[in-house]
Design a protein that fits this description.
Elements (H helix, E strand, L loop, with lengths): L42 H11 L10 H15 L6 E3 L6 H8 L6 E3 H8 L14 H12 L7 E2 L7 H7 L6 E2 L1 H19 L7 H5 L6 E3 L7 H7 L6 E3 H4 L2 H4 L12 H6 L16 H7 L14
Antiparallel strand pairs: 1-2, 3-4, 5-6
Helix pairs in contact: 2-4, 5-7, 6-7
Length: 304
Amino acid sequence: MTHPMTSTTATSTKATFPKAHAGRCGLALLTLGIALVLVAAPAASNTAIAQEKGKSVAKKTRTPEERRASAEELFKKLDKNRNNVLKADELPKAKAWLDRFDRNGDDEIRKKEMLTVIARGPGLDRLFIIRDERARANNALEQFDQDKNGTVSAMEYPGNKNAFKRADRNRNDELEWKELIRMAADELDAIRKKMKSPSRYDFLNIFDLDRNRKITANEYDGPARTFRKFDTNSDGTVGYYELYPDRMMEMTRSKPEAKDMNIVGALDKNDDRRVSREEFNGTPAAWRRLDRNRDGWITSADAR
């Protein structure tokens, strides 16, 4: 059965603000046809007004409390039957809303789900494959559903076959939407366990929400002491080279250790579970050591 709300990616929807005229300072209203974005009016509009009036206008940044209050107000406005759940028939452009706020993939948005996403802060208020079941299931469809029929077959799935069998509840050798959600939930449970006491080698994999190979204090939701430990230059950001210093990449073991293969998750920009030479930013010596089977990719197979 193909899931009616299937999306190939879990992307955020950006709002477009109208340019402000001299008599209309402040924030522009979002249209209901666009997913919620709680940000300040663009700086360009404020700058134009400032130049016109001959004075500078400071860009306004909403506090977490203001963002939460705005989200609660909009949720209440959309929740016509007052049951604290938004369903597709209550939402304009439902698919965009679900892909942004429906964390567990049940095609409904609960108030807690929306507030949790909004609390992630500007630029991070969307779903991520290492936090949310819907985003992870959508990513699986994008990566593995080769015939684009809305399911992932046993032949298409390159991962652990036992995990596939556990998720395939109806034993038809295909993972449908609800089964993909169950698999995503199991994988996220494993990630959440690691979050309690993350190692250096897992740090980027489980906390780098936007996959840019650095972790800011805003996106980090693990133990504070661990963040301070790895933030060696105390700049409020943990970067790749703080976690994987050059000396580790230059080690000359003849065979990679299992912990080395966490580099796959750290450097895999397109989430295809392998690292190409273009994605790899280590030395040629490190590449030769890690690409043990000489197939031009670094994958988990190189650690076997």
